[in-house]
């Protein structure tokens, strides 16, 4: 089965990975970029006079529609709740490029520039500016800009795992250093404090990653091990997921991720952002970097919603009380 899976993945190549990144971003609330973008709309969020103590910030978001648009609006609303910031939004529409964005940033001359979403993140990475530049709502790998990732803060995620699956003693994941090495390092620290051993399988490329997934599942112990699927993986999650869920079900392993759709398909838990709270965290993150505080250049989202698959839980010996279930944000299988 693995040999067939590997052949399929290698045939898909980078395109599958790019498509998977888009899917993960959309599932977690930030739509993938439709492409480059054309001159834009600039809309001030606040109309009242700017408080003397506030710092002006330019928030760059991609043009979106439907659910994605609502999510961006919630993130921006969360940023705007910080009284120390006065924000102006800059919407990237189809056709905008780096030269146009550079002109807009120079014209506004705001002390802080906040890029929201993968498209804004990639474009803002090329800016030449003395402004404090940060990004948030990102599923991609770090590119040098201080970033608040869509991935949940590992300390908070591990705390939830310990509470909901108390028999779990180890958390295993396949990771790539450039993509999510930061998360693995912090998960190691958080796991030690929580009494959970975090075991990483460092993949160099897609082919290597597929083999490590097989090794990881073989190494894992029934009920004792949980398997983590990173938000962005060296192996596209949509490709490896069927194999992983099948093996995890057979060995009674808890599968944990940042994508609720994985839980719907049979994973045990998924942690995903509360978008307005993420915006508030992003505002504070931007101010910390603007002040020069001693803070990390990449952080995970702290206010997390929780999706749980009750059928999978029962299969591996977990029963959740009604009180616990009332705290879950999404429950699968769906109740009618």
| Average pLDDT score | 87
CATH fold naming of the largest domain: Rossmann fold
Rg over CA atoms, rounded to whole Å, is 20 Å
Number of helices: 12
Please provide the count of β strands. 14
Give the uncertain stretches in residue-range form.
Answer: 13-40, 42-48
- By CATH reckoning, the class of the largest domain would read Alpha Beta
CATH homologous superfamily assignment of the largest domain:
Response regulator
H/E element string?
A: HEEHEHEHEEHEHEHEHEHEHEEHHE
Strand fraction band? 15-25%
- Described by the principal axes of the CA atoms, the overall outline is elongated
Share of residues in helices? 40-55%
Query: What is the CATH-assigned architecture of the largest domain?
Result: 3-Layer(aba) Sandwich
Can you tell me the number of structural domains? 2
- Report, as a whole number of angstroms, the end-to-end distance: 36 Å
Major sheet, described briefly? 7 strands, mixed
Q: What structural class is derived from the secondary structure elements?
A: alpha/beta
Strand order of the largest sheet: 1-3-2-4-5-6-12
Written overview of the protein:
There is one protein chain. This protein is 45% helix and 23% strand. α5 crosses α6. The longest helix is centred in the N-terminal third of the chain and has 26 residues, at 2-27. The protein has helices at 2-27, 66-80, 98-108, 118-124, 154-164, 177-194, 206-219, 237-251, 260-265, 275-291, 310-315, 322-325; strands spanning 41-44, 55-62, 85-92, 112-116, 132-138, 147-152, 170-175, 197-202, 225-229, 254-257, 269-273, 298-301, 304-309, 330-332. The chain is an alpha/beta fold. The chain has two domains: 41-150, Rossmann fold (3-Layer(aba) Sandwich); 152-272 and 305-332, Rossmann fold (3-Layer(aba) Sandwich). It is elongated, with a radius of gyration of 20 Å.
